[in-house]
Amino acid sequence: MTTAGTGSGSRVLVVASSRHGATHEIGAHIGQTLRARGCDVTVADAARIEALDGYDAIVLGSAVYAGHWLPDAKAVAERIADLHPFPAVWLFSSGPVGDPPKPDEEPVDVAAIVEATNPQGHRLFAGRIDKSELGFAERAIMIAVRAREGDYRDWDDIAGWAQGIADALHAARSDRGSA
């Protein structure tokens, strides 16, 4: 078990791209968890992020629609690939809904994003669907895949994943300190 305040002191950028806010909420929860573990965290919207340099780690996530990451998140991934020195990277996708969550496969374009960013890991989290926020095309997809409205995000699972990131950063910092 890990405790609050035992984090790495690492500078972490959490960037998320979201169409209706649910993925931004996941990014904020990851940021809050990392802060509680002692990380210096900046949480940002992928559409508005400017500088990516100066961070020890970047956590990048995107909502997934029709099997694809949103363009703003893909653009940030391309920028990460050009960073020198290269930071530690973790990726997350948000989108499956239902019980059990569907679709349960990796997003179509995540393999290319993984190759470009060489992440420590990629995690697929269930999402939230609120019909009142959806446009016509999104509602049609919802009907076609028989998705049910609801919030399927598992906040404990998300926090546990973020705690694993804090643990890895802390271990890396300890390794650098003892080298």
What structural keywords apply?
alpha/beta; disordered N terminus; 6-stranded mixed beta sheet; two-stranded antiparallel ribbon; 179 residues; single chain; 8 strands; 5 helices
User: What is the SS-derived class?
Assistant: alpha/beta
Q: What are the secondary-structure elements, in order, as H or E?
A: EHEEEHEHEEHEH
Helix content: 25-40%
Task: Measure the end-to-end span.
Answer: 27 Å
What's the average pLDDT? 87
Strand percentage: 15-25%
In angstroms, what is the radius of gyration?
16 Å
Shape: globular
List how many beta strands DSSP finds: 8
* Biggest sheet descriptor: 6 strands, mixed
Return residue spans where pLDDT drops below 50 for at least 5 consecutive residues.
1-6
Number of helices: 5
